[in-house]
UniProtKB/TrEMBL annotation:
It comes from Sphingomonas lenta. Residues 14-79 form the Cyclic nucleotide-binding domain. Pfam families: cNMP_binding, HTH_Crp_2. PROSITE patterns: CNMP_BINDING_3, HTH_CRP_2. Keywords: DNA-binding, Transcription, Transcription regulation. Residues 131-205 form the HTH crp-type domain. The lineage of its organism: Bacteria, Pseudomonadati, Pseudomonadota, Alphaproteobacteria, Sphingomonadales. One of its GO terms (molecular function) is DNA binding. InterPro entries: cNMP-bd_dom (IPR000595), cNMP-bd_dom_sf (IPR018490), Env_Response_Regulators (IPR050397), HTH_CRP (IPR012318), RmlC-like_jellyroll (IPR014710), WH-like_DNA-bd_sf (IPR036388), WH_DNA-bd_sf (IPR036390). This is Transcriptional regulator. Coiled coil: none annotated. PANTHER family: CRP FAMILY TRANSCRIPTIONAL REGULATORY PROTEIN, FUMARATE AND NITRATE REDUCTION REGULATORY PROTEIN. One of its GO terms (cellular component) is cytosol.
Length: 229
């Protein structure tokens, strides 16, 4: 990126706000205000269903832009909660006006990232309808590991999951008891092992085939991006 593009992005991270695990950053149906960049930690976004259950939509990692729906809606369509102690950088949506006007390439990149998120949600929706419970859990583990590997190239087959079985269940449409059973079956099948909160993939190819998983972080084509101004 150019120096001007770097400065434009840095302006989004001038202010910082710390959140403890479990703190609500944005609440569903409340007024949408600021947008955020996740600086450190991990968050999740979810919606509450009519029966009181929770459907987790996304897990967020450092570098992600949060509450982007505030550019479109007056009220937030989802709740965003800290899964760990986190640091977020709030910024006014007027900052996006400047980016779109002054740096169309940055605006195009943000659009591309949002498309990647949309495809990830589409994959999750398809998995809920077409794969087994064991396949859904396997797909989520692969997705989380691949997101972490974007940030840390040293991560390979072993990583710290950082999610409870209830959270895994709320992302895959399963109960915590069912998630526990599926994880044990994946271990019994020789596909992964678990120890002290860390997961190790023992047969990633078989795990991906079972989950009908497509790595959306490979095959990205950004050759169409406009030149920097």
């Amino acid at each position: 990126m150019t120096e001007a593009e770097h400065r434009s992005l840095e302006r989004l991270e001038v202010r910082q706000r710390q959140l403890r695990r479990g703190a609500v950053l944005v609440r569903e149906n409340e007024g949408a205000g600021e947008l955020y960049v996740l600086k450190r930690g991990m968050l999740m976004s979810y919606v509450l269903l009519d029966d009181g259950s929770r459907q987790i939509l996304r897990f967020h990692f450092p570098g992600d832009m949060l509450a982007v729906s505030g550019l479109v809606y007056r009220r937030s369509p989802e709740t965003v909660v800290a899964l760990t102690d986190t640091v977020v950088c709030p910024f006014d949506r007027a900052e996006m006006t400047g980016i779109v006007t002054e740096h169309p390439r940055l605006a195009a990149i943000i659009m591309a990232v949002n498309q990647m998120e949309r495809v990830a949600l589409t994959d999750r929706l398809a998995a809920l309808g077409r794969t087994s419970a064991k396949g859904r859990v396997a797909a989520l583990l692969l997705e989380i590991r691949n997101r972490m590997r974007v940030l840390d190239k040293g991560i390979d087959g072993t990583f710290t999951l950082g999610l409870t079985q209830e959270e895994i269940g709320d992302a895959t449409g399963l109960t915590a008891v069912h998630v526990n059973r599926m994880l044990r079956q994946l271990e019994d099948d020789g596909l992964l092992s678990r120890e002290a909160g860390r997961v190790t993939f023992l047969n990633e190819g078989a795990l991906a085939r079972m989950a009908n998983y497509t790595d959306r972080f490979s095959g990205i084509d950004l050759s169409w991006l406009p030149a920097a101004r």
